[in-house]
Design goal:
alpha/beta, Protocatechuate 3,4-Dioxygenase, subunit A, 3-stranded mixed beta sheet, 8 strands, 30% helix, globular, binds 3-methylcatechol, binds fe (iii) ion
Length: 279
């Protein structure tokens, strides 16, 4: 069947079949996606068996809560970022810390403190490398923003995130830090280990068929919000990770790999220009 005939069918099924007030945006999007899917079935001669295998796959991915993970692994989440960057560029909004994907593992409501937080609950302190990070939130004009919320979350030493991993304490490695009167935040945690897709899960199943791994380099997630300002969603990567530029979710960016200063003696904190002692 040619594409014009397919489009006529799709219009018949979506638009002409409506006998009640409809949501025009939903109609528009479904019409397009349905038509495009039918064209792919036609052009690639997708068999009924292949089609129903795909339906089962999506059902299983949804049932195991992996659709968000799939969106990251297929590059779709990265694509939304590229479009957001483009829209901001067109609006003349450039500069600042680059955005990168949120991923599927954020949990709202982390404990809040001003200026400083320790992220880890101490259970892995014997095995992890302690990490200190500090920064300042600046506005578009380069002025510090006191009272901004910096939400931070990252994986533990097994690459797992609290809540999704029920063995961790509530909100382990998740905190909200409100910037101090000079716009600064600091935290203590440890260097996380990169995440890997569940090896027997639906996302990894598809990645295997595509000949791809499902690993992320070690990273730390951030939301930065303040009244009257755009929200920043970003991550930093831990420099030196062998997968730094081989992330299955395509999130590593120039400008999001800060230098790490390794310190053996805590007294060296001053020499490394940590602005004040950590709690
Ligand atoms: C993660 O930790 C993550 O950040 C992304 C984007 C996908 C899967 C797991
Ligand atoms: Fe992550």
């Amino acid at each position: 069947m040619n594409h014009a005939d397919i489009e006529t069918l799709a219009k018949n099924w979506v638009v002409d079949a409506a006998d009640r007030p409809a949501n025009p945006r939903v109609q528009q999007v479904v019409l397009r996606l349905l038509g495009d899917l039918c064209k792919a079935i036609e052009d690639l001669d997708i068999t009924p068996t292949e089609f129903w295998t795909g339906v089962s796959y999506m059902s299983a991915a949804g049932a195991s809560n992996e659709l968000g993970l799939l969106a990251a692994g297929l590059g779709l989440e990265r694509f939304l970022d590229i479009r957001a960057d483009e829209a901001e560029r067109k609006a003349g909004l450039e500069g600042g810390t680059p955005r990168t994907i949120e991923g599927p593992l954020y949990v709202a409501g982390a404990p809040e403190s001003v200026g400083f937080a320790r992220l880890d609950d101490g259970t892995e302190v014997d095995r992890g490398e302690v990490l200190f990070m500090q920064g300042t939130v600046f506005d578009q004009d380069g002025k510090p923003v006191p009272g901004a919320k910096v939400e931070v979350w990252h994986a533990n030493l097994l690459g797992n995130y609290s809540f999704f991993d029920r063995t961790q304490s509530h909100f382990n490695l998740r905190r909200t830090i409100v910037t101090d009167d000079q716009g600064r935040y600091q935290f203590r945690s440890f260097i996380p280990v990169g995440y890997g897709c569940p090896p027997n899960g639906t996302t990894q199943q598809l990645l295997d068929l595509l000949g791809r791994h499902g690993q992320r380099p070690a990273h730390i997630h951030f939301f930065v919000t303040a009244p009257g300002h755009r929200k920043l969603t970003t991550q930093i990567n831990i420099d030196g990770d062998e997968l730094l530029w081989d992330d299955f979710a395509f999130a590593t960016l120039e400008g999001l790999v800060p230098p790490i200063a390794r310190i053996d003696d805590p007294k060296q904190l001053d020499a490394k220009q940590v602005s004040k002692p950590f709690a």
